[in-house]
Every structure is written in C-alpha cells, then in structure tokens.
Design brief:
By secondary structure, the protein is mainly α. The chain has 8 helices and no strands. Helix 4 packs antiparallel against helix 5 and helix 5 packs across helix 8. It starts with a helix and ends with a helix.
C-alpha cells in the first residue's frame, strides 16, 4: 500500500532531524510536493534542503511556491530571502521585513526560526546568506 503524503513528510522530517544529508532527502520532499502541491510546509522544507545542498535557484522556486501558498510563514520568507541573496536578486528586504513582523507577533514562530538558524549553521557553518538574514532579523 503506498504511503500517504503525511507519512512520507513525517518520515522525511525524522530522517532530516536524525542528521541525514539534505541531498539524499531531496527526492523524498520533491515527491511530497508533487503529491501535495498545495502544502506550504512541504515547499518550505524542499526550499531549505535545496539551500543546504547549494542549489539556490531551485530553492528560490520552491520558496516562491511556499510564500504564495502561505504568506504568513516566516520560514518560507527567510528561505526566499536567503535564496535571493545567493542568486543576487533584489527585493530581499520585503521578505525579511515581513518575516520580522511575523516573528515579533508570534513568539513561538521566533523560537522555531531561531532553531532553524542554529540547525542551518550546524550543517553549513560559514553560511553567509543565512548569517546576514539572521543579523537583519535580530536588528529588526
């Protein structure tokens, strides 16, 4: 029996949290996004994995979909901002400002975003774009 999209998504998160290489998880999250194209969390995760795998163009496209599906998700906004920095696009400030407003209004979101920053830096210690966005949010 084929696994549901929710089960695949949860398994992917478990494998990611267990430290699995983002590159090996990309096919799983691509499949989740194909099977659940309106799932903002899936697109946000896919964009994050692309960023960790040094594929900012693909990350940008996935983050665009996540932001379109859920403009109130600060992590999707952060992912698109990082991807835009890494592909030298303009318009980064709008996404950072929106993310800043969202995490200011909802403390739980701020905690989640901070955990994601730490996770990203543990996997990519010299991640300049992530460090810039993190600094901008701290100044926000």
């Amino acid at each position: 029996m084929p696994e549901t999209v929710e089960i695949l998504f949860e398994q992917g998160l478990e494998r990611y949290n267990a430290g699995e290489d983002p590159a090996t998880l990309l096919p799983l999250f691509k499949e989740v996004c194909e099977r659940a194209p309106k799932s903002s969390p899936a697109w946000t995760c896919l964009s994050w994995l692309y960023l960790l795998d040094n594929k900012p163009s693909q990350a940008y496209k996935a983050a665009q979909k996540a932001v379109k599906l859920n403009p109130q998700d600060p992590q999707a906004r952060i992912n698109i901002a990082i991807a835009m920095l890494e592909t030298a696009q303009s318009g980064v400030r709008q996404h950072v400002e929106t993310a800043s407003q969202l995490i200011t209004m909802v403390p739980e979101l701020k905690e989640e975003v901070e955990r994601n920053f730490e996770d990203g830096l543990s996997r990519k210690p010299d991640w300049k774009s992530l460090l810039r966005v993190k600094q901008w949010l701290a100044e926000g």
